[in-house]
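Section 5: illustrative case.
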């Protein structure tokens, strides 16, 4: 990864208000603002430009957030339309360029299609978009330029707290394969006839594809609303599929915490720092404490 710097300008002096984000060596910029400020923000020249935008807000059926990805030529009329027609969103992020005219309709349609595809593949946040739009026809040069623009956007979004487009980071190499000292330890969670493997990352705790989870959960698990809804989402999205007497992870999946991961694997309330262990049987808790000296 290449280090970079961000410049975040708090335009109205309120940290929760309008923020304008620019990244080193990038022609783009982002506007981040709560829905309540749209009447004031609509006069910003950036929203009169062509761009792509995200709407984020709480899910109507439970905990967590959902996402809508859109494009506008310009952005403002689309946001005004969503103000009256979409209830869920509480904040918006608009992406355009520092100098007007550097993005056209086909560019932002491409960015919209790529973002929706990435979000559907990652399956980390429910999408309000009903369909997967087709990518427009772009010249080879324009496509390359938009892939670079997209990579900058994907670098900015996690800093803004949006992880919907991130794939799980690369897995550590096993000890037999020459794991380096800097690699995270490969950990195991076993019990109730299932076994899962995973590891810590900067994004969260990753459970690896091929890991198992129980098919039957405890009675108390159903009372854990966040975990129960997450499990239902994983089943609905095909991240978890039935295989024999258990469930199987079809892809690497990033959980917010080790305990969330072990809750899903074992189907109950667990302490992930104790349930996840390395090949020598040392718990994640013990490994973390040893690292601290």
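Designed sequence:
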């Amino acid at each position: 990864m290449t280090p970079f710097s961000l410049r975040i300008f708090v335009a109205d002096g309120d940290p929760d208000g309008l923020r304008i984000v620019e990244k080193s060596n990038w022609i783009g910029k982002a506007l981040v603002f709560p829905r309540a400020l749209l009447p004031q923000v609509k006069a910003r020249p950036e929203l009169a430009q062509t761009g792509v935008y995200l709407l984020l807000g709480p899910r109507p059926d439970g905990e967590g957030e959902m996402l809508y990805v859109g494009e506008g030529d310009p952005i403002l009329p689309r946001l005004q339309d969503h103000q009256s027609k979409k209830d869920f969103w509480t904040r918006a992020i608009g992406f355009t360029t520092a100098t007007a005219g550097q993005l056209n309709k086909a560019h932002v349609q491409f960015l919209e299609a790529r973002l929706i595809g990435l979000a559907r593949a990652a399956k980390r946040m429910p999408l309000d978009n009903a369909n997967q739009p087709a990518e427009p026809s772009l010249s080879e040069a324009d496509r390359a330029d938009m892939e670079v623009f997209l990579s900058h956007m994907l670098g900015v979004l996690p800093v803004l707290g949006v992880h919907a487009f991130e794939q799980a980071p690369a897995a550590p190499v096993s000890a037999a394969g020459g794991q380096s000292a800097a690699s995270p330890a490969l950990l195991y969670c076993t019990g109730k006839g299932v076994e899962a493997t995973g590891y810590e990352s900067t994004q969260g705790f990753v459970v690896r594809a091929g890991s198992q989870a129980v098919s039957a959960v405890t009675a108390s698990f159903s009372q854990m609303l966040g975990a129960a809804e997450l499990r239902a989402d994983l089943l609905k999205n095909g991240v978890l599929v039935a295989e024999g007497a258990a469930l199987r992870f079809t892809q690497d999946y990033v959980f917010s915490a080790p305990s969330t991961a072990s809750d899903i694997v074992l189907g109950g309330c667990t302490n992930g720092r104790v349930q996840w262990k390395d090949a020598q049987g040392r718990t994640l808790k013990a490994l973390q404490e040893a690292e601290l000296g």
